[in-house]
Design goal:
The protein is built from 11 helices and 2 strands.
């Protein structure tokens, strides 16, 4: 039976105060919702608890968001809207740089995203596993450009004989392995990953995928010192 004590609820960091006053009411609601939904999921987060955390009444929440589902989509949209394709990675893909240069950048971009925006990643899990309607469109809108650009890059590399893989399978296998590594590490170690651990993850995953996709890969030529 699921239950959450007041102590657990209060352990969630409240929305930031600016100049001694709360931010705009809607922003406070969104900030509180990000923390609740990302920690407890959609079903187990109540609007009453979100209102308590945001310092507003439940009625106020429904004035801004008629339904709990509307609130969740607004929160997820706000978080996903912060995601941006790494400009250096985008430039390398557009110029068809060698795979041994692009692959490490792709790995690093995803690992850094996961470690720097864990709430956004957890909201994605909630989207995909708790809510069906609307999730595909929302995820495609914000993550599609990155994955599609990478898939197209891999396709061009395959056509040039630089790689011998299915571009779509390779794209999503890399993304899935990076996301799974982060999640399973939390389960096994039961502690948040530090910046140093993020660096270690980038190095290990880069080596794994360079060796998996480039059988003739022998060393770190063209790979940043951080990933070797």
């Amino acid at each position: 039976m699921y239950s959450r004590t007041l102590q657990q609820l209060l352990a969630v960091e409240p929305p930031t105060r600016v100049g001694g006053t709360y931010r705009d009411t809607e922003q406070r609601i969104i900030e509180a919702s990000v923390q609740m939904f990302s920690r407890f999921g959609y079903v187990r987060s109540s609007t009453r608890e979100i209102a308590t955390l945001a310092g507003v009444t439940e009625v106020t929440i429904f004035r801004h968001f008629p339904k709990k589902r509307d609130l969740f989509w607004a929160v997820t949209e706000a978080c996903l809207g912060r995601l941006q394709v790494n400009s250096e990675l985008a430039a390398l893909m557009e110029t068809d740089a060698e795979p041994k240069v692009v692959l490490p950048k792709f790995v690093a971009s995803l690992v850094e995203l996961i470690h720097e925006q864990p709430e956004t990643v957890r909201l994605l899990y909630v989207c995909l596993f708790e809510l069906d309607d609307g999730s595909d469109m929302l995820v495609r809108k914000h993550l599609g450009p990155l994955f599609e650009s990478f898939r197209e890059y891999l396709s061009r590399a395959v056509s040039k004989g630089l790689l011998h893989v299915d571009p779509e399978v390779a794209t999503f296998s890399m993304a899935a392995s990076i996301a799974a590594q982060h999640g399973l590490r939390h389960l096994m170690k039961n502690k948040p990953c530090s910046v140093m651990e993020a660096e270690v993850a980038i190095s290990a995953l880069t080596r794994f995928w360079l060796n998996a996709l480039l059988p003739d890969y022998k060393g770190c030529d063209g790979v940043s010192e951080r990933t070797c």
